[in-house]
Amino acid sequence: MSGNQCICLNQTCEYKDSLVTAAERGHDECVNKLCEKLDRLKMTTLYKEAYYTLAFITAAKCGHVKSMETLLDYGADIYYRNVDVDDPILAASEEGHAESIALLLTNRRFDLEELSSAFLAATKGGHVKVMQILLDHGATVNCTCLDIAIAEGHVQALKLLLSEQHYSLNKLNHGLWTAVEKGDVDVVQILLQSKADPNFSHSDKNVLIHAIDREGNHDMRLIDILLRFGASVNKPGKIPNTYGYSWSIPDYKQPWKNQSNIIQLVMCLLVNGADIRKINIVGSLSPNIPLTIAIRAIQLDERAENFDANRLYDLLNLLSVAGGQHIVFQVRDNYPKTWRHVEKLFPNSDTDLPKTVPMLVDCCRPIIRAHLMTGFNNNLIQAVSKLELPRSMMKFLLMDLDVPGITIPRSTPE
């Protein structure tokens, strides 16, 4: 090496420590020189091989193939095993060093258990190239690998596992539950494409409610994907920390701290066919469907820090034109102090909706575009028609989208 001498070659250092340091740093020239010096020392072969082997395992873990080759030439024991030292193939798999794995497989025969353990380690790190090499050499895939890939959010590793192994529907469904809990949109989409059930229920709580009931910190992309893959927007289910039957929701369910996505969520559920007719914000007989959870999440206490009269007005206005006038009346009759804040915002006439129309368009347009981008054109008008909007509002809603073949249905009320 030119310039200052590498610390690996410092004669005051122990040869073993110097060799391991050089192997760890990938200083191939130093490894070679230190091996030459060790080879000339009057030391038993057993000690020399121990030094070479420890450095070899370190080089494998760090992915320094040339150093590995040098150490093998000088007598490193590729079959060495010790409970206190990582197996080289396991160490290399954890770090994702494909070239190290290839060299090890070329020079040593590994049994099925060793290969499968290395494959599990590579899965945990999401090292797809290493996973493929190990599969090509006979590693087996077990159910734990799928759980790890989903929990760690390794998309490419998950795709490889699903292409190599057939998993039961129950296994896929529980994986979907975990991915929804983590809010991992990409993993959720892959599992749904692999036929996981978007209506799967766990402990009386279905996947869609599981995605929504996140104190307002839900991801609208996740909810949209579940709905596009067939999640039932009207399927009831239980939510955590509640008592009684799965179709009921207690009065003490607290509003979400994060109120920012409530209107967009309600609009999304309405566009996808949520039944608003039996939903109430008071009492416990309202069906516990996603729309109930979304509407009841709004802050109605005017003293609360996250109370927003304009947001509440927008929600009530939206519900009113979507067939939920009874909910507006419930707010008026049961929350008089809150109603004073929003009453002045309502228009004087049922036909005067200057704020509702733009708000509907802003909420609907991303949903409509998502439908169009994924080829759901045939269901688009049907979904929007379920809102029973006036014809003039429907025209405004669909204008400027520039989508051939989309017309307003004649059944739409004027």
Description:
The chain contains 22 helices and two strands. The N terminus and C terminus are likely disordered. It has 414 residues and is mostly helical.
* Rg, Å, rounded: 31 Å
Order of helices and strands: HHHHHHHHHHHHEEHHHHHHHHHH
Q: Please give the alpha-carbon distance between the first and last residues.
A: 85 Å
Strand residues, percent: under 5%
Descriptive terms for the model:
22 helices; 56% helix; Serine Threonine Protein Phosphatase 5, Tetratricopeptide repeat; mainly alpha
Give the arrangement of secondary structure elements.
Blueprint: H1 15-25, H2 28-40, H3 45-62, H4 65-73, H5 88-95, H6 98-107, H7 112-125, H8 128-136, H9 143-152, H10 155-164, H11 169-182, H12 185-193, E1 201-202, E2 205-206, H13 207-212, H14 220-228, H15 262-271, H16 290-296, H17 309-321, H18 325-334, H19 336-343, H20 356-373, H21 377-385, H22 391-398
Antiparallel strand pairs: 1-2
Helix pairs in contact: 1-2, 1-3, 2-4, 3-4, 3-5, 5-6, 5-7, 7-8, 7-9, 9-10, 9-11, 11-12, 12-14, 15-16, 15-17, 15-20, 17-18, 17-19, 18-19, 20-22
Question: TL;DR?
Answer:
This protein has 414 residues and is mostly helical. 56% of the residues lie in helices and 1% in strands.
